[in-house]
Specification:
DUF6534, membrane, transmembrane helix, DUF6534 domain-containing protein, 239 residues, mainly alpha, single chain, 7 helices
């Protein structure tokens, strides 16, 4: 019971706090976006709207998970041995990651003057494969009987996280090359002459580098502490 409290319930509770905090920040940013960019492309506004709905669903699922492990478990300790129903969140997380990485893939294609289509195609295939793996994990969570069967699904989990990590490495490398290294090398084109452009480039690079770092942290945590739920804490920063 002590192990369940410190290595299962505690990380889930922390992850829920992180999720709610990030959701509040996300809600503020999305409202700001819709207020300031009312004339933005319809497809972008639809994507932001979809992301808001999926983030809302993910937050509600995470809160339900915390309630189950901190309240319901007091009257029914077998909750810790069952497959957590919030694992259906993979069905939400998969498309979210696909859209986020897909946007960066489109961006790489654009900033390369549409010449990097082979790289963009490879990244898109990896993203679709990762989304399919997320759906498979959802199917497993809906049909498995015990959390002990998590050992059987580990290869799929590692493959899913590995696809995300590989894609983030490719995206970060491509953005770094096309927006920072290549212009500096050629001393032409979009070569960091404008202060605003420089800030946009740096922020863009930092954002995806942060995503790459989080992806690596999640993978390392689940490999090193696969018997616990601590991987859920860094995993919440992926949104």
């Amino acid at each position: 019971m002590q192990f369940a409290l410190t290595q299962v319930a505690q990380p889930v509770l922390i992850a829920s706090f992180v999720t709610c905090s990030l959701y509040g920040l996300l809600l503020f940013l999305i409202i700001t976006y819709f207020v300031r960019f009312r004339t933005d492309r319809l497809v972008f506004r639809l994507l932001v709207g979809f992301y808001l709905l999926s983030a809302t669903a993910d937050t509600a699922i995470e809160c339900g998970w915390a309630y189950g492990y901190t309240i319901s478990a007091f009257s029914d300790p077998t909750v810790y041995t069952a497959i957590p129903w919030p694992y259906i969140g993979y069905a939400v997380l998969g498309p979210n990651v696909l859209l986020a990485q897909g946007f960066y893939t489109w961006r790489v294609w654009i900033i390369s003057n549409k010449k990097a289509w082979p790289l963009a195609s490879v990244m898109l295939l990896i993203q679709v494969a990762a989304c399919c793996l997320a759906f498979y994990l959802t199917h497993w969570a809906a049909t498995a009987d015990s959390i002990l069967s998590f050992q059987d699904i580990k290869p799929v989990m590692y493959a899913w996280l590995g696809c995300g990590l590989l894609c983030d490495i490719l995206i970060t490398s491509a953005i770094t090359w096309y927006l920072m290294l290549k212009p500096r090398r050629e001393r032409a084109g979009v070569a960091m002459r404008d202060g605003v452009l420089r800030q946009i480039v740096i922020k863009s690079f930092q954002t995806n580098a942060l995503s790459l770092t989080i992806q690596l942290a999640v993978l390392l945590t689940i490999v090193m502490s696969s018997e616990t739920m601590w991987y859920t804490v860094p995993g919440k920063f992926r949104r």
